[in-house]
Amino acid sequence: SAVCSSDLREQLHNRLTQLREEHSELDAAIAALTDSPPFDQLQAQRLKKRKLALKDMIRKIEDMLTPDIIA
């Protein structure tokens, strides 16, 4: 993959920080929701699905920021 410019790297790092914060907040929201039964199963599923999508985005950005190592 192409090497990111320093400006793009900074933007990706900022986005990564935002995504990690949102992921953490979702984690807390899911825990709070499921700690007090009866809880909204559908809402919990939506939050978990969003959390999974965030994890995928985080992984993609981390991959972009990690230089390819050619053996």
Overview of this protein structure:
The structure is a single chain. The mean pLDDT is 89. Helix 1 runs antiparallel to helix 2 (41-65). 77% of the residues lie in helices and 0% in strands. It has 71 residues and is mainly alpha-helical. The chain is built from 2 helices and no strands.
Beta-strand fraction estimate: under 5%
- Described by the principal axes of the CA atoms, the overall outline is elongated
Helix content: over 70%
- End-to-end distance: 15 Å
Instruction: Determine Rg (CA atoms, Å).
Output: 16 Å
Main sheet specs = none
Q: Which spans of ≥5 residues are poorly predicted at pLDDT below 50? A: none
Question: Tally the helices: what do you get?
Answer: 2
How many strands in all? 0
Helix-strand makeup class: mainly alpha
Q: Provide the residue-averaged pLDDT.
A: 89
- SSE order, one letter for each helix or strand: HH
How does the SSE layout of this entry go?
Layout (H helix, E strand, L loop, with lengths): L5 H30 L5 H25 L6
Kindly summarize this structure in a few lines:
This protein has 71 residues and is mostly helical. It has helices spanning 6-35, 41-65.
Distinctive features:
71 residues; mainly alpha; 2 helices
